[in-house]
UniProtKB/TrEMBL annotation:
Species whose genome carries this gene: Holothuria leucospilota
This protein's name: Melatonin receptor type 1C
Membrane topology, record value: Multi-pass membrane protein
TM annotation in the entry: 29-53, 60-81, 93-115, 136-159, 179-206
Localization, UniProt: Cell membrane
SUPFAM superfamilies xrefs: Family A G protein-coupled receptor-like
Length: 237
């Protein structure tokens, strides 16, 4: 009874020290991480082995695969260790900083991919090639990682020391700063990328729909012109 009560208390606090919960959680986490590493590893390997895939546009895809693979590794490392051991403050902040950095890199890379697709579909090829030169793409990737690191450092600066009683890293801040920091993180990590991604693909949708309507209108005009010529030729005969 005492063990079950202890397990229940720990579960309510968000940790998994009980063997029954670890038996279920650890294999699921391992399979998820293994699948993520394999899929992203295939993408990176394919790009390294094939020169045709090493394009400026695919540089964002490769960067996305790398960030996602590293985030899987760090997340699994954090959960696996926290299941069985307490974390020192340094390792707690190191792992959280890594997860935050890789997560930010994923979102920002998806944002640049959406912008890349928008310009490729809706603008001229000349403009696309002028914007997405190799040096500009490299600068964009460096900016992605740099901004993600800055945000993650800002985030871990607000993390309390590891709480051994609760078996977890506290991602809380002082009460009067908590709301402002949370809003800043949400704005930088979620709202801005989501707005840009949604706006880019919506503009692509509108462009394709307008283009299809134009092609349909031109087809109807040509069909009417051909029919008129056929009728005229038949009348002359």
């Amino acid at each position: 009874m005492e063990t079950n009560a202890s397990c229940q208390n720990f579960s309510e606090q968000g940790a998994y020290p009980c063997s029954e919960e670890r038996t279920v959680a650890e294999p699921l986490l391992f399979l998820t991480v293994l699948l993520g590493i394999m899929v992203n590893g295939f993408v990176i390997t394919a790009a390294l082995c094939s020169a045709g895939l090493r394009t400026t546009a695919n540089a964002f895809v490769i960067n996305l695969a790398l960030a996602d693979m590293l985030m899987n590794i760090f997340a699994f490392w954090y959960f696996l260790i926290s299941f069985k051991h307490t974390l020192e403050s340094f390792f707690c902040k190191l792992i959280i900083a890594g997860i935050e950095t890789f997560y930010g890199s994923i979102l920002y890379t998806l944002t640049l991919i959406s912008v890349n697709r928008y310009i490729a579909v809706t603008k001229s090829r000349r403009l696309y090639l002028a914007i997405f030169k190799q040096k500009f793409v490299a600068a964009g990737i460096v900016t992605i990682w740099g901004s993600s690191i800055v945000v993650s450092v800002f985030r871990i600066a607000t993390i309390h020391l590891y709480n051994a009683e609760e078996l977890r890293c506290d991602l809380t801040t002082r009460p009067w700063r908590e709301v402002y920091i949370s809003l800043a993180i949400v704005l930088i990590y979620y709202i801005v990328p989501v707005v840009i991604i949604t706006g880019s693909y919506f503009r692509i949708y509108l462009h394709i729909r307008r283009h299809n309507r134009l092609m349909k209108s031109q087809f109807q005009t040509e069909l009417t012109s051909v029919s008129s010529r056929d009728v005229g030729s038949a009348a002359k005969r």
